[in-house]
Amino acid sequence: MAERLLLADEHIIVRDGVKSLLLYEGFEVVAEVSDGCDAVAAAAKLSPDVAVLEISMPLLNGIDAARQIHAGNPRTKVILLTMHNNEQYVLEALRSGVKGYVLKTQTGADLVQAIRTTLRGEIYLSPGISEGVVNAALTKSVAKVDFLTQRERQILQLIAEGKSNKVIAQQLDMSVKTVESHRGNIMKKLDVHETAGLVRYAIKIGLIQP
């Protein structure tokens, strides 16, 4: 029986290319989505064997989507397929339960190998990502963002994307006052006092790309 995969990437042309490769390799693609929230929902509904996510996605980034998928269904292996080889991104990914980290600069065979490796219960990192990153993930202190709730992380991402409190409230189905309260809590926890500082921090820990 073919392994069941979920694909999440904002760009349709990328999803089409990855899907063609995976179908050729004998995998079954059970769902394709364009943002992190839909990825979490699809994973909860379909329980795929593997979820392949891009880091930079609207509404909810791939790292936080991976964290939620892992919490809801640890059996689903999550692989990030991305352009980002920044150490902080890799560290955050591994801490969120990601089992594979594949760079888009590699060949399709790299992704296929990553899928098969994670299905065996092992961690896979693309060539070019230092093995020292794994050790760093185990030894470095927890980033400040770990003290944020899932909702606060999502709101931080939307703030960094330039969304107003009103727009965030509409997208997350909450009141503007509640958004303002979350925003204040985020600033307090991170000891950041202006929006520009929130944006810089969101970029640093991989919630958005510069």
Sum this structure up briefly.
Helices cover 51% and strands 13% of the residues.
Features:
alpha/beta; 10 helices; single chain; 2 domains; Rossmann fold; globular; six-stranded parallel sheet; about 15% strand; about 210 residues
How many angstroms does the end-to-end distance come to?
A: 41 Å
Note the main sheet: 6 strands, parallel
Rg is: 17 Å
Mean pLDDT: 88
* CATH level 4 superfamily of the largest domain: Response regulator
- List segments where confidence is low: pLDDT < 50 over at least 5 consecutive residues: 141-145
Q: With helices defined by DSSP (H or I, 4 residues minimum), what is the helix count?
A: 10
Adjacency order of strands in the biggest sheet = 2-1-3-4-5-6
Helix percent reads 40-55%
Query: Which CATH architecture of the largest domain would you pick?
Result: 3-Layer(aba) Sandwich
Which class do the helix and strand fractions yield? alpha/beta
Oligomer description: single chain
* N-to-C SSE string, H for helix and E for strand: EHEHEHEHEHEHHHHH
What portion of the residues fall into strands of 2 or more residues?
A: 5-15%
Number of strands: 6
Give the C-level CATH assignment of the largest domain.
Alpha Beta
